[in-house]
Amino acid sequence: MPLVNPLPADANEEVKQLSEFFNETLGFCPNSVLTMQIRPEMAQAFINLNKAVMKNHGRVTAALKRMIGWVASNAAGCRYCQAHTILAAERYGATPEQLEHIWEYRSHAAFSEAERVALDFALLAASHPNGVEDSIKKRLYQHWDEGEIIEMLGVISLFGFLNRWNDSMGTTLEATAAETANKYLGSNGWEKGKHR
Q1: Domain for residue 142, yes or no?
Q2: What angle do CA 100, 106, 112 make, to 5 degrees?
Q3: Environment class of residue 183 by beta-carbon count within 10 Å: exposed (0-12), middle (13-18) or buried (19+)?
């Protein structure tokens, strides 16, 4: 049972209009946002930040951003965000092979070296204590420029907020996200946990 129950999707007209963004990314407005709208200004600020962070500027593709979010959420242990990011990665064009082998991104042929570095960065930046050091900086700059690194860290940081929010809230996981997570992550031990 969540700490605080979400409000209906139409509880605040401005939040409802802004949250249409999630219909594209997930196919529904997440319960996390529906809970945030108890304080509408918080939901509005979060949605606008999410839109800015996830905007596609080029080489850090929408699919890669969602896989970065997955690795960061896996490091934090947030099963709610793991389910959302794997669903969004699927919707934004990550290959089935990438989704099925996300656990093995470091060695599986479905991932390029540039993607591996980005995902390693996500793991190191989302770990506690933080593991970002000179060695990952050198690897990042072999494949990515400063703007792209900013985009990646924006995703990692956004999911840092979401991981804390959803794990503390015990946010109820939506059926579509749970189905996709079971499909791609279930064989490696993923389960809903507290997000029932």
Answers
A1: yes
A2: 85
A3: middle
Burial status of residue 3 (CB atoms within 10 A of its CB: 0-12, 13-18, 19 or more): exposed
Assign residue 81 a region (left: φ > 0; alpha: ψ between -120 and 50; beta: otherwise).
Answer: alpha
Q: What is the pLDDT of residues 16-36, one digit of tens each?
A: 999 999 999 999 999 999 999
Q: Residue 1 has what pLDDT? A: 87
Give me the CATH number covering residue 84. Answer: 1.20.1290.10
Counted domains in the chain? 1
Inside any domain, residue 26: no
For all residues of the chain together, what is the average pLDDT?
97
Tokens for 91, please give them: 């919707």
Of residues 115, 79, 33, the one with CA closest to residue 191: 79
Q: What is the model's pTM?
A: 0.97
Residue 168's domain comprises 59-188
**For residue 79, what pLDDT is reported?**
98
- Specify if 164 maps to a domain: yes
Q: Does the residue 152 lie in any domain?
A: yes
Query: How many angstroms separate the first and last alpha carbons of the chain?
Result: 7
- Segment 54-97, tens digit of pLDDT: 999 999 999 999 999 999 999 999 999 999 999 999 999 999 99
